[in-house]
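Dear all,

This email documents one entry for the complex benchmark we are building for the journal club exercise. For each entry we list the sequence lines for every component of the assembly. Then comes the predicted three-dimensional structure of the complex as a token string, followed by one or two observations. Please use this as the template for your own entries, and keep the labels exactly as they appear.
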Amino acid sequence: MSATAELRSLRSGRRPAAKQQNKAAFFFLLPWFLGLFVITLGPMIASLYLSFTDYNLLQPPEFAGLDNYSRILDDARLHQSLQVTFVYVLVSVPLQLALALALAVLLDRGIRGLAVYRSVFYLPSLLGSSVAIAVLWRTVFGTEGLFNEVLGLVGIGGRGWISEPETALSTLIVLNVWTFGAPMVIFLAGLRQIPASYEEAAAVDGAGRWRRFWSVTMPLLTPIIFFNLVLQIIHAFQAFTQAFVVSGGKGGPADSTLFYSLYLYQRGFGNFDMGYASALAWLLLLLVGTFTAINFWAAKYWVFYDD
Amino acid sequence: MSGSAKARLLGAVALSGALVLTACGSSGGAVERSDGQVTLRVTWWGEETRAGLTQEAIAAFEKEYPDITVKGEFKDWDGYWDALATTTAANDSPDVVQMDELYLASYAERGSLLDLGEAGEFLDTSQFDEESLKTGEVDGTQYAMPIGVGVLANIVNVDLFEKYGVELPDDATWTWDDYADLADELAEKSEGKLNGSSITGGMDTGSVRYWARLHDDELFDKNGDVTLDPQTLASMWQYNLDLMGSGGVESAAQAVESYNAGLEAGSLATGKVAMGFSYNTQITALREASGADLRLLRLPGSGGADAAYFKPSMYWAVSSQSDHPAEAALLTDFLVNHKAAGDILGTERGIPANGEVRKAVTADLTENDKIAVEYMESVTPGPSPVVTPKGGSGVEPMLQRYTQEVYAEQTPPEKAAQAFVDELQSEIDSAK
């Protein structure tokens, strides 16, 4: 509420007409403010409080000090979920972005039917985190799935890709890489922003294709790469639906797809352990925040702004 | 009305609502009928079929009690428990809730369910036998009414037995060794086209409870602590590991896939195995899905022993937050006791636990339902095991996790069994 009070005092010195306009603006912003305070900030503050309590959902929370946070240190399943999540983030995001960039560059060559290709490649991004695709994945990578049949054609013996602990996570990584369409569209827009004259000038100076790409296109594209990187890392840290559907909410087989948010959900709802789950939520926020901060710090050394 | 609307709004604020409201709870005092029109909410998990039948039974109730309006809500299993926990946290629980053995103690011991004894005037328990009523007790208090019961059974696919020229076993005398030999024989005679059996233990607690009882053991003791000897659990896993090696049972990966695919697309229904364990009440779904001649046999080793038990498939319970406990009890009474409701609901929630209703319903059962009832009558049940203790509601995924580690040969059975028992006990301890 203090924010609106501040805004009100800022507003007070203005002319009546502007005041009227502001009123209208606030009126139209109201749904957003309501959403922010009621659906986002309210529960966040509540969960911060709950993270210091022993709360089983059915009885009033009891203050427990730092108990939940000290549990973090020796919770073996939490450590497993951290490992799964880190592998997922560190492997799938670079692969996904590399694929997105490669295809964006290819499509940028001005091929015929660009709009069609763009839509087709973008489609998985819309579907990727849906329940239907997770179900499809279970079928494709099953023992008798399509993937094994294709392998069989070239004489390679298959396995239960999604039902064996050694390979289950890789299928989810492939699923995430497959949703490269969203960063690809952003890359495409970024490529279009680069003035053609730069490349022409380089070509006149005798730079080859490869050279032009590395020395002209890439540096100018680094802000876009940075933007995609930050976004996709945050997105990957919060992965939930895929593992939830593929493993029936268990993170199995044998915890091999136990994403962080899935474990948080299991503690909160499966084990009536909402205090601890709240602490885990704040730890996740901290982790994502740290990763993003590192990203921004590192950006100084490789992101090039042409202005 | 405005009070409940307010509660619902706060429910939307998720947890913050809980802080304000949980302290209120039910007012206590005598359970008696309210004056004027009363609206109840009832909730259950399940599919469309169940929803249709339940709505029909609700309509019959409303006809009998014109001053009570009932709103039914249903969800799938996972969504149901998430919603029940959050609505209860927001002090907005539906009046009548479908309960499961896994969660009964977790809700009852935390004061979320009404002691049905307080509403005894409105709820008749006389048509239930004692053993079956006990399955709805927590610490000697009746918190829930069992709706239906199921018994673990061995399901055999007679078509596949005939196809490969394997003789059906005598289920009165067979042992686990016989079962293993038979599974191997099926795999051998089919020349690897099928596995003899699906895995016989580890994906559900029923299989572990049964194996434990065969070894004069139980999963939980009377105080709700884990009493299972890790050696017993390890021997169950070892039994399956041995059979996996020979092809007698399906591989670990197939077991995971079969489980995730669900009953009607699992390996029994699709004829990838010729035998497997399931509850007798699932025979209808399995026969319809497979189109094969499936039959129910008693489990190996059960001859004479009373390791088998009647598992309550689900319960009705009344929320302690209900503003109208008397009417909620009346609805519960109607659903479990009245012939009109019994006729509509049939065996969809299991063979009725109410003896009178069971008799009435059996008369006009379908062939598949008859198989389930006949099987149940052929089994001599032992005493009912205690319900899953508070803090143990996550036992099933925990068991599956260790089972998958063992069957994927990541962890040796003994080590996993000890770890399972320790982890389960620590969950129960931390909820005490």
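Observations: Residues 302 and 308 of chain B are 7 Å apart (CA to CA). The longest strand of chain B covers residues 38-45.
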